[in-house]
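Risk register update: the risk of archive-format incompatibility is retired. Evidence:
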Amino acid sequence: MRIKVPKSFDLNVKNSESVARIASSAKNGGVGYALMIPAIKPIYNKLHLAYNLKRANEENFNLFVAAQGIHDNKLSDISILKQKGASAVYINSDEDMNLIKRIFEYASFLNIPVFVNANNKALSVGVINESENAYKMGLSGIPNYAESTEVAKILEFSRHFDAKIVFQSITTKESIEILKNKPENVFVDVAIDNLFFCDENINEFDTLFKTFPALRSKEDKNALLKACEEGVVDFISSNHIAATNKDVAFEEAEKGISKLDIFTQLAYSLPLAHKKITELVSTNPAKLFDIRIDEFIEIEFGNYKVNTSNFQSKAKTTPYKTLKAKIV
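Archived output:
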């Protein structure tokens, strides 16, 4: 069976490697557009922004760049950054709330979306999900409420502004429950890893499954899949992180899973209707940025092995072994 679908728009590619590698990996993964998230390296001024946009232009790749809204506890110049080509603002939810308030005001005035990493860093010092599995392995855990309490706070805050707010990489059933009645200006993104795996997959301290946000329980995973079906989730993104230092003790291993090279193939391997997948990885992200995706690819369904030797990312470290879809 084959179907024709628009190229994907990946709303969560961490800036963990060069733009050239991101562009090449995206081509492998059927991704025609990507939003770079400055979670690894800083992008808070016009020089950082110009550098990445120039490299994307050289690669003839549709790269959207999110600029940091807050750096060193100071507000970035969002107005100038937007003028220079920034497509979004990225913040952590546990920053100074007065600065976040000002960002929401700017975002509303400038009509630029704000991507929120809903996470309390003080509560997230662990390495995997807080669970019986973590206890058995002797590893420090990250509780669900490190995310859900931040989601509740930012959601309540967002009701007082009309800026577009995107909760990025939501992982817990508690967060989904909080977001079920979100206002129209609030959107929910889920990383694809949390739809395929749960903390039970971390056997024998396998560092390939170490990522951030952490893989949660099977109950959380099922709640996320149901939220995708029911329309609570608006986007599925890769949360691609090129982590190469994995052949070490679990506590010391880099967080991140490489999968941009197979992102669209993974998306259409999910147990969701093909039409729904297209909405979540193509149509809805395009609407957020008021663009239209007019490039299409053909997907074939079957059983295929993941060949990491074909990855263009600098990281070949991925726990994905098989796919149910491939790009023809």
